[in-house]
Amino acid sequence: MPIRLIHVSDTHLSATHGYFTDNWRAFKADMAAAPPDALIHGGDLSFNGPVAEPDLAFAAAEMASLGIPHRVISGNHDIGEAPAFSRLKQPINAKRIAAWTKNFGAQYWHWDLGDWRLIGIDTALLASGLPEETAQMDALREMLATRGKRPVMLFMHMPPFDKDPDDPARTTSVIPHPARAPLLDLCAANGVKIIACGHLHIYRRLRHRGMEIVWAPATAMVDVARGLRQRRRFPRPGYVEWLLDGPRATHRLVEPERMFVIDMTRWTHSHGFTVTGLPPREPA
Q: Out of 2, 109, 196, 210, which residue is the most buried by the measure of CB atoms under 10 Å away?
């Protein structure tokens, strides 16, 4: 029997800033109606976890309430960003790592599911210069080396690149250039068949060196103008459903009809391109 795996990302949950609660409830309704075999959350579980640990605790409780076997990886709204690439001035540090591990456990992990090895890593560590960056890369090499014949699906929050993997431009949208080539070289040489990411709140598919790269959409807000301008696609909230059938993996985009298109760009353009300054709003 194929294994049904859900990849959801960028939920931005909070008990005090419940702007995206309705879409999360629609997702929970889908999961209750047809529970998958497993679920991966691809990061930005929380609204503003780097400075509000209660957001992390709330998101962890919501994940547990699904009652589905799951793993999670952190996003920049959970644990911060690589210090030299910190757009929100929330650099990853020991305190933020401790808050994450307290609420969710390890920053990186592997999970053998059917014929596949699933691996999750923390993209905030990449190009961070922290000792934890070296530890994560060593662990990734070990997880890849011990996979046997299993193909690998790698989950990470930030996409590896946009259009050009060799683009050296400074960015907070994709993995910083200094860390990009070593990661992609390691993946391409060691059985990674799929890279599943999120962060940019839009669904997209790429192929690179024999690897399929699939961007999960957000369940939270979208940027309609950017989606139409850059991708010629109207961005909608949703998630990705994978079917793992032996060594074969296929996926489909799911855009639930009960999820609302929430475009916060009027706010973000006026407030530093982030929603984290929004006033409190309790979930309805």
A: 196
Tell me how crowded residue 255 is: count the other CB atoms within 10 A of its CB: 13
What are the distances in angstroms from CA 158 to CA 116, 122, 212? 22, 9, 15
Question: What tens digit of pLDDT does each residue of 225-235 get?
Answer: 888 888 888 89
Q: d(Cα 149, Cα 193) in Å, to the nearest integer?
A: 12
Distance CA 165, CA 182 (A): 11
What is the distance between the alpha carbons of residues 284 and 138, in angstroms, rounded to a whole number?
45
Alpha-carbon distance values, 210 to 49, 116, 241 (Å): 35, 17, 21
Average model confidence (pLDDT) for the chain? 96
Partner residues linked to 74 by β-bridges: none
This prediction's pTM:
0.97
Q: Which helix (H) or strand (E) holds 193?
A: strand 192-197
Q: Using DSSP bridges, classify how beta strands 3-8 and 38-41 pair: parallel, antiparallel or unpaired.
A: parallel
Domains recognised in the chain with CATH numbers? 3-270 (3.60.21.10)
Pick from 95, 74, 66: nearest CA to 197 = 74
120: number of CA atoms within 13 Å, CB side?
Answer: 22
Strand partners, 169: none
- Tokens representing 72 are 């999670």
Three-class SS state of 276: coil
Q: What pLDDT does 269 receive?
A: 87
Q: Is the pLDDT of residue 284 over 90?
A: no
Closest CA to 116 of 149, 71, 155, 73: 149
In angstroms, the first-to-last Cα distance of the chain is 39
pLDDT digits (tens, 9 = 90+) for 11-68: 999 999 999 999 999 999 999 999 999 999 999 999 999 999 999 999 999 999 999 9
